[in-house]
Amino acid sequence: MTGDGRVCVVLMTYGSPAGLEDIPDYLRNVRGGREPDAALVAEFRRRYGLIGGSPLLTITNRQASALEAELNEVADGNSYTVVAGMRFSPPLIADVVRAAAPEAGTVVGVIMSPQFSPIIMGGYVRALQDAVARLHRGGLSLKIAEDWHLQPYFLEALAQRVTEALDRLPPQVRDEVPVLLTAHSMPRRVVEGEPGYIGQLEETAAAVAELVGLQEGRWMFCYQSAGHTPEEWLKPDFADVMPRLREGGYSHVLIAPVQFLADHLEVLYDIDIGAREQAEKAGIQFARIESLNTAPLFIKALAAVVRDALARPA
């Protein structure tokens, strides 16, 4: 669909506390209103304190600005406004829609995860649907981009980051260093209800490895950032992989998230601090790819995702 006038694009992501004092409220939102216990609050304060607070909102706003410029550069009959909305912290999805979409003809929602699961991402969809419904505008069209895990510009952007990271490694190891392509772990019970989601993660990892030219056995897909619950989470975690790499004679490792699109806690703490400690404990030198953030190829990917969503019939 083109030529329908004003389009409001909402980039939707998880959210993060604005400061250490906001952590209890943030965790309460994540937990559906249940009070977090003191130990959990203390642990999150420690983690956010170590990384100097999360830059997620700042980066998502920059992504929104870059995407707005990219979309409006092409004369397609539409004018685009792009905003960032958070699921569990301000600015909430409902608030940004109310502020940015009153005169739009179409709202396009993009969940900032290339892989889509109706179970896992359903909360974003419902939040956006409710926000649009509360505008009480019968002629307003809503489009939601779902799965875009094999979007060519996205894959190219990730492959470029991996290649750049490999080029920074010492010449004597860069052609053999193991590459761990990671995604956020999940409880096994969730995956059993949504098995296709794991397939999308694995397909993204395999496609990036192929673009980079990584041979089979040189790379592996694994998990990170398992939650603070006693239930079974998906394995292998990269903590399990590090000792095995050392036993295999490797001295370096490169971590490349295939799901995270910006720097935030799971990157700056779970990888840069947690994974680094695990690697060094195993006697391995650690490296990570640069996050996509506002990489030009990634912004082109988001623009393609928006245009694909607009082109789909209602």
List the helices and strands and how they pair.
Layout: E1 5-13, H1 23-30, H2 38-51, H3 56-73, E2 78-86, H4 93-100, E3 106-111, H5 118-133, E4 141-145, H6 152-168, E5 179-184, H7 188-193, H8 195-212, E6 219-224, H9 238-247, E7 252-257, H10 265-268, H11 270-281, E8 285-288, H12 296-311
Parallel strand pairs: 1-2, 1-3, 3-4, 5-6, 5-7, 7-8
Q: How would you describe what is shown here?
A:
The chain has twelve helices and eight strands. The protein has 314 residues and is an alpha/beta fold. It has two domains: 162 residues, Rossmann fold (3-Layer(aba) Sandwich), CATH 3.40.50.1400; 137 residues, Rossmann fold. Strand 3, helix 5 and strand 4 form a beta-alpha-beta unit. Helix 6 runs antiparallel to helix 12. It starts with a strand and ends with a helix. The model has no long low-confidence stretch (mean pLDDT 94).
Offer a quick outline of the entry.
This protein is an alpha/beta fold and 314 residues long.
